[in-house]
């Protein structure tokens, strides 16, 4: 089933399994019962991921941080159009549904073929077969002057910077206003990904690192950062002994999630203070 996927697409199994396994934790970082049901249906030996505790915790902290940012946006814009880029087997729609938004899962045709085996569409939940590298992917997203949120979780760090610049440029040329949420790694963590044992299982590695969240603002003068969080920057009881790693600056400030206003502000912007945490 997964032999047709490239190295980056194969990483879709990692967050799915980590969210599913976390359901049984006494105080879960992320509670996703749907993920637990999905892995029961997928013919894959997930046992090989059981010992990858560090990657699991980092992934769950990332998911929880992005969840919070999406929730804050949707609290202000419940009727938004949401595009989840590089959707894989993500289930965020089913945790976040406002009952009024339209949600588009966007990924490669071979990934969507797998996704459709387990998840169906309806009048507000759509699947789009396209790559973010495709300059015409936006044609599948009817916005109709509604607030637009674009999520790219666990995606951009696998791409080269010119590709990311083109992706953001494409958004801004085709949507006058949009809100972008994505996660990034530092240049050091990009380099160290070549030695990450979990990523070695898929053959993927990080190709882009961002020095600071403000870096994106230097790309264009109509990009404005709204939020930034170093999601391994604070100790949490759920992390257990792995809290030790947050004492290292390379870890503490190596993984971030941020949101940006692209283009003209919405009539009402999402709540949330600029609470960037700087080293």
TrEMBL record:
It holds the Pfam family LCM. It comes from the Bacteria. One of its GO terms (molecular function) is methyltransferase activity. GO terms for biological process: methylation. Keywords: Methyltransferase, Transferase. SUPFAM superfamilies: S-adenosyl-L-methionine-dependent methyltransferases. PANTHER family: S-ADENOSYL-L-METHIONINE-DEPENDENT METHYLTRANSFERASE YKTD-RELATED, S-ADENOSYL-L-METHIONINE-DEPENDENT METHYLTRANSFERASES SUPERFAMILY PROTEIN. This is Class I SAM-dependent methyltransferase.
